[in-house]
Amino acid sequence: MDTAGENSRSALGAKDMATAKAKNVALPAILDLDALEGVRDTLADAIEQGVTSVSGADVERISTNALFLLMSAAESARRNSTEFAVTDASPSMLAAIERLGLGESFAGLLKG
């Protein structure tokens, strides 16, 4: 019996499944209190599926609570042992992060 071969195929299969379940989430242009509930639910579902990439490219306005939601989602992903990143943050989003002094908290989350 080739148990080593079977084990590596099982590990590879698990990795492929995680990649197949990767989720991309695009944030809306206006991410205020009215939009938070829907974004929260979308992020929770994405994190349950595995690797999550959140695009901030379209963000024109973002509330403080929305930034805290993203930090909380990143922590949930960490606890689930999965990857979480914010990609292509718009200039407005980056300005809000800096203005609120959250640059250090987002340093490990921002990609691209």
From TrEMBL:
Pfam families registered for this protein in UniProt: STAS_2 (PF13466)
SUPFAM superfamilies associated with the record: SpoIIaa-like
Domain of life per record: Bacteria
Occurrences of domain MlaB-like STAS (ranges): 25-102
UniProt name for this protein: STAS domain-containing protein
